């Protein structure tokens, strides 16, 4: 799914479902003013997570659009990953109707992050996963040729088989859908993008 289609998908979800609180994990550098305006117009409370400099850029765009920081906050990490910020949100008692995980795409980062999302979901809430078919093997050449990505992706941590695995696909399909009983919403899902609905209670057996 192309980025413009993903953005349209998210805005449609925000419009059609009863979303009062929305968290995006992995904002990325690209600014999406139409999404921010939709969130503001619909009265949705928004939390965005990423590296601190990325969060600062998005916060500046929020301010430029005149949106109140009371309902649109950015929580950045200066070291490590967004995992500890997810843990802090859980400790604060934060709950969300919709979480979008578009982060590191690897098992060692996003498996823990996805698990940390579970207590943050309201019963029947939605969680979306991007890059469900993405794998390190396909991106290995481009990752190693980029100074930025070569710093955040250590390919030596993975065997060839593990690099060929679709890590987000394992998380979304094998754990959330098949093990935890989240329901896939087909009209908003594709091979590479999944929208799942949380059950009212989660069994880990």
TrEMBL record:
Pfam families named in the record: Methyltransf_3
InterPro entries: SAM-dependent_MTases_sf, SAM_O-MeTrfase
Gene3D superfamilies named in the record: Vaccinia Virus protein VP39
Lineage: superkingdom: Bacteria
Keywords attached to this entry: Methyltransferase, S-adenosyl-L-methionine, Transferase
Protein name (record): Class I SAM-dependent methyltransferase
UniProt organism field: Roseovarius halotolerans
């Amino acid at each position: 799914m192309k980025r413009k289609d993903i953005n349209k998908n998210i805005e449609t979800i925000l419009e059609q479902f009863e979303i009062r609180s929305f968290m995006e994990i992995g904002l990325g550098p690209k600014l999406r003013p139409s999404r921010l305006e939709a969130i503001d117009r619909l009265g949705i409370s928004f939390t965005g997570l990423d590296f601190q400099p990325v969060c600062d850029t998005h916060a500046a765009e929020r301010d430029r659009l005149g949106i109140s920081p009371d309902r649109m906050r950015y929580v950045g990490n200066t070291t490590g990953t967004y995992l500890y910020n997810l843990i802090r949100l859980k400790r604060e008692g934060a709950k969300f109707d919709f979480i979008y995980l578009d982060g590191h795409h690897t098992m060692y980062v996003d498996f823990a992050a996805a698990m940390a999302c579970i207590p943050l979901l309201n019963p029947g809430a939605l969680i979306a996963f991007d890059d469900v078919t993405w794998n390190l093997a396909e991106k290995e050449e481009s990752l190693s040729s980029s100074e930025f990505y070569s710093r955040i992706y250590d390919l030596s941590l993975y065997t060839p088989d593990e690099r060929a695995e679709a890590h987000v696909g394992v998380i979304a399909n094998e754990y959330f859908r098949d093990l935890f009983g989240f329901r896939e919403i087909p009209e908003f899902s594709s091979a590479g993008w999944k929208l799942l609905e949380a059950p009212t209670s989660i069994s880990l057996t």
